[in-house]
Design goal:
This protein is an alpha/beta fold. Helices cover 52% and strands 12% of the residues. The protein has helices at 12-23, 35-38, 52-57, 69-76, 80-84, 97-109, 139-144, 146-152, 165-193, 198-225, 238-255, 260-274, and strands at residues 5-8, 28-31, 47-48, 61-64, 88-91, 113-119, 132-136, 155-160. Strand 2 (28-31), helix 2 (35-38) and strand 3 (47-48) form a beta-alpha-beta unit. Helix 11 packs antiparallel against helix 12 (260-274). The longest helix is centred in the middle third of the chain and has 29 residues, at 165-193. It is elongated.
Length: 293
């Protein structure tokens, strides 16, 4: 018999999780601080609990998808903690690696099994074969409930026993995403200043995206191998990158565009060049993105 599951937090993502669980045949109990947001799920077959206490008591697995870890703590600590003993809490709230480890310590001290997860998808991907969720924590707890996780998405991955790993990978992947999005915003600003149609930008991006993806893959591979000096396989060294970068800086200066983002890039370039890496592989910059000096 499939375990009953409670979902705390029924915003867009929480509701998507509920629908996926119901589709997979799980008895699903829901709670939300604003009751009106949980009520529509009753029509889909969920049981709406009037309190966190009753929601926790009604299920063997508690999935939490609220604002942040402090919000989770406000819900589960105190009197509710007693009802959690012997049950599994799956935290699918965005957080930090150290935050996940802290919750894990609290859970262990209260006899609660705990897994931490990071959802790498928008709500429309939940319950589909492409839905990706990274999960960290005790492998035994993950394996015992793998069918439940598979109901949430076809690309569910256990990434390690360390409870902080899911959110650590989440932060790393989001850094890649935000780099691309802020780069796109910078590009849009240049296009508008130079009266380039954004449709043309979209077409050119489609053509050049494979080149960028190749550069990112090469950067990760070379950094992992410690191959930071230029060699016969170097795609481009710092020198041509920095030369082209100066053209962007000059254009932005002439057009009076905001330089917040590019000034950050420039500072990293300059530190690397001052340290003698002008003719090394672009991967040499990885040495200047660690701990602040």
């Amino acid at each position: 018999m499939k375990p009953a599951i409670t979902v705390l937090g029924t915003g867009r993502m929480g509701s998507a999780l509920v629908h996926a669980l119901l589709k997979a045949g799980h008895r699903t109990v829901v709670w939300n601080r604003t009751l009106e947001k949980a009520t529509p799920l009753a029509a889909a077959g969920a049981v709406v609990a009037p309190s966190v206490q009753e929601a926790v008591e009604a299920a063997e697995i508690i999935i939490v998808n609220v604002t942040d870890y402090p919000a989770t703590a406000a819900l589960l600590r105190g009197d509710v903690a007693t009802a959690l003993r012997g049950k599994l809490v799956v935290e699918l709230t965005s957080g930090t690696p150290h935050g996940a480890r802290d919750v894990g310590k609290w859970a262990a001290a209260h006899g609660v099994s705990y897994l931490d997860g990071a959802i790498m998808a928008t709500p429309d991907f939940i319950g589909t074969e492409h839905g990706t969720i990274l999960v960290s924590g005790p492998r035994r707890a993950f394996d015992r409930n793998e069918d439940m996780f598979r109901a949430l998405g076809g690309n569910i991955q256990h990434v390690g026993e360390d409870l902080g790993l899911a959110n650590a990978q989440d932060s790393a992947l989001l850094a890649l995403m935000w780099g691309a999005l802020f780069g796109a915003l910078q590009s849009i600003a240049v296009c508008r200043a130079e009266r380039i149609d954004l449709g043309e930008l979209a077409r050119q991006w489609t053509a050049t995206a494979p080149v960028v993806e190749g550069l990112v893959a090469d950067l990760i591979k070379r950094t992992a191998a410690g191959r930071l000096a230029a060699d016969d396989e170097t795609l481009s060294s710092l020198s041509p990158h920095y030369s082209a970068f100066q053209h962007l800086v000059e254009l932005m200066e002439v057009r009076k565009l905001d330089r917040t983002v590019v000034d950050g890039y420039d500072a990293i370039f300059r530190r690397a060049i001052a340290a003698g890496h002008l003719h090394d592989d672009f991967a040499a910059l990885s040495q200047f993105m660690g701990k602040a000096g």
